[in-house]
């Protein structure tokens, strides 16, 4: 299993995605032209497009180990993010330049609090 899962995927706004691509996260599969990143554009990207990208990275692809998603984008598909419980890929919510991180909304922290009975 660890041989397959070797990529980090990104669902984020343009600044976040660009920064991560510059850091070397981006990859386009030569045979299928499949990208491991999805750029969210405020006011232009629909909830369905975000949901489709999330499903692609979490269910359809077997090469994704970690999915980084801007927290404000995850809010658009919160029920889908909260409902994802598989071990792989790990879904991590990250802040963006325009939207600070709110630990009260983070699905991983919610599960941890639930485990500890908080």
UniProtKB/TrEMBL annotation:
Transmembrane segments: none annotated. It is a peripheral membrane protein. GO terms for cellular component: fungal-type vacuole membrane; proton-transporting V-type ATPase, V1 domain. It is found in: Vacuole membrane. GO terms for molecular function: proton-transporting ATPase activity, rotational mechanism. Keywords: Hydrogen ion transport, Ion transport, Membrane, Transport, Vacuole. InterPro entries: ATPase_V1-cplx_f_g_su, ATPase_V1-cplx_fsu_euk, ATPase_V1_fsu_sf. Subunit of the V1 complex of vacuolar(H+)-ATPase (V-ATPase), a multisubunit enzyme composed of a peripheral complex (V1) that hydrolyzes ATP and a membrane integral complex (V0) that translocates protons. V-ATPase is responsible for acidifying and maintaining the pH of intracellular compartments. Belongs to the V-ATPase F subunit family. V-ATPase is a heteromultimeric enzyme composed of a peripheral catalytic V1 complex (components A to H) attached to an integral membrane V0 proton pore complex (components: a, c, c', c'', d, e, f and VOA1). V-ATPase is a heteromultimeric enzyme made up of two complexes: the ATP-hydrolytic V1 complex and the proton translocation V0 complex. PANTHER family: V-TYPE PROTON ATPASE SUBUNIT F, VACUOLAR ATP SYNTHASE SUBUNIT F. This is V-type proton ATPase subunit F. It comes from Lachancea fermentati. The lineage of its organism: Eukaryota, Fungi, Dikarya, Ascomycota, Saccharomycotina.
